[in-house]
Amino acid sequence: MAIVTFLISLTGATMLLLFAVRMVRTGIERSYGASFQRVMTRQRSYLQASLVGLTMAVVLQSSAAVALLTSGFAASGMLSFPVGLAIVLGGDLGSALIIQVLSFQLDWLVPMLLAIGGYLFVKTEAKKARQLGRILMGVAFILISLRFLREAMDPIRDSAFLPAVADYLARDYITAFLVGGALAFVMHSSVAAILMCVTLVQIGAIPFAAGMSLVFGANFGSAFLPVWLTRGMPVTAQRIPYANLALRGSWALATLFAANLALRTGLLGDPQGGQMLVNVHIAFNLSLLVLALPFCGRLAALYERFLPDRNKEQKPKPARPVSALDMETVANPSQALPSLKRELLRMSDLLETMFRPTLELYRSGDKEQIQSVQAIDEDVNQCLSGIRAFVAAIPPDLYEKQDAKTARDLMEIAIRLETAGDVVAKRLTVLASEMRTKGSSFSQDGWSELVQMHEGILANMKLASNVLISDDLESARLLSLEKTEIKRVERDSRKRHLRRLQRGTRESFETSDIHLETLRAFREFNSHIASVAYPVLYRNGQLLETRLIKEIADEAQDS
Distance between CA 540 and CA 43 in Å, rounded? Predict the structure, then answer.
């Protein structure tokens, strides 16, 4: 019975730990996720890149999350292999440093974190304040889960079961290494896995030797996780995780044998305690970073040969996918409605292709690039025409009332997306051309405000695509809240711009009309994107019919 109680308590504490780590990461991603691309893809040296990776891992509490972000940017061509590998190596060290902080006895902080975090999350409306509350509560839950983990070990610590397992792992360090790797992979979090190992050593549940081998194995398992998660991504995205796995795995095996040999011959003395285990973990990642960083550039050619770009051997593909609509399926709701959604996703992808380079156009003013963006608007218009004809061809007698309403809702979304395309093609590109003609530039503060708003809208476009696919209520609510956040950002930027005019900032005077018009265009574009959430919110009773009246009142207040 003690074993069953132990397993239930251990599972509960582990699940709470995983939930808490995810809660902290989610809060940070929702607050600052839109800025990650700009921070990670800026040109920098290997040392600067590793420091960025370290910071990102501390912020996200996950080296695997840093590796996945890096792989995604590498796949899109925004990040080179050497810089990406340097970021990932720095991220490994960052995750080790966050374990140092979380391993301290901070139980006295729990009530304060819960009180402040709960108040911010429940009682405030500002986005960043709410997400700060989520982060603080997540940290509190991490500390609570570690306390539960220590308490779960108490009933079984003096039994014959745990000491026998602990002694076996201390003797057979290869098995302990494999167990640590499996633990990190199954938990999908090296932070959670290593925190568990550190806690077990702190309370004396397992000896230091077993904990050290488990930690080396967890380092290997955490490197294998990004390889597994990027297996369906392009080859350019897979090279960085594979290189990190090779470096981290080989160094983990080398240090495993060397450390256990030194431990058994007495060269390391008699290290004890969880803090010493944390020091070993930090030393492992720091030494790997110092040894591997100079070779990041040289490894690029090796992994290009090891993982060649398969696209070079394939026949060229059309630049844009063909329409997902097939008139032969219009009489079958189970096929017609998914086809409409796929076509809307195609519209959304085209819109992102149009919107992403808009700020670049403001700086370069490249006429050919402006014309190429405007040309994509024709494809968006054709998508709307196809969706309109498809919905018009639906036979009313073959569709249930709810299915027919869903088809109409999807067509309304298509209309809003086409209007968003017009905002880019007929307003933002015109403003970019005007900037080029005048040869003017924004003030540094004004440009930073536009970049922040642009990044937020790009993040909302990805969220809108997820809502379109999943019809998830929570995601739809978040998208609606993000629309309100963009309105607030636009309003605050407008106020700051007027203050710059009062101070006599020259760049603000030269670009005042363009800056204000760009803010309005960004806000309107985002409003059209956020319309994807409305059908989901209406179906679940989360959106009142008086929403338009409230929006008109908000517009009057902003004017």
Answer: 46
Residue 355, SS3 per DSSP: helix
* DSSP one-letter code for 293: G
Which of 102, 271, 67, 263 lies closest to 194, judged by CA? 102
Confidence of residue 163 (pLDDT cuts 50, 70, 90): low
DSSP type of residue 320: S
Q: Report which DSSP code applies to 78.
A: S
Task: Say which residues have a Cβ less than 8 Å from residue 355's Cβ, sequence separation at least 6.
Answer: 424, 428, 457, 458, 461, 525
The beta strands (E) that lie in 290-385 are given as: none
The single-letter code of the amino acid at 127 is: K
Contacts of 427 (CB under 8 A, 6+ apart): 517, 521
User: How many angstroms separate the CA atoms of 109 and 106, rounded?
Assistant: 6
Backbone angles phi, psi at 189, to 5 degrees: -160, 110
- Which 3-state string (H, E, C) describes 26-48? HHHHHHHHHHHHHHHHCCCCHHH
Task: Give the tokens for residue 283.
Answer: 């030393």
Of 42, 329, 19, 361, the C-alpha closest to 191 is 19
User: Rounded to an integer, what distance in angstroms lies between the CA atom of residue 132 and that of residue 293?
Assistant: 34
Q: Which of 475, 474, 448 is nearest to 462 (CA)?
A: 475
Q: How far apart are CA 67 and CA 78, in angstroms?
A: 14
100-138 pLDDT tens trace: 887 776 777 888 989 998 888 888 767 778 888 888 888
526 Cβ partners below 8 Å, 6+ apart?
A: 456, 457, 460, 483, 486
pLDDT one-digit tens code per residue, 217-234? 998 988 888 888 787 777
Q: Where are the beta strands (DSSP E) in 454-551?
A: none
Count, residues in the chain: 559
Q: What is the pTM of this model?
A: 0.64
Q: Which residue has the tokens 């079984």?
A: 156
Let me know: does 31 contact 128? Beta carbons within 8 Å. yes
Helices (H) and strands (E) in the chain, counts: 25, 0
The answer to whether the CB of 330 falls within 8 A of the CB of 394 is yes
C-alpha 252/C-alpha 442 separation (Å) is 50
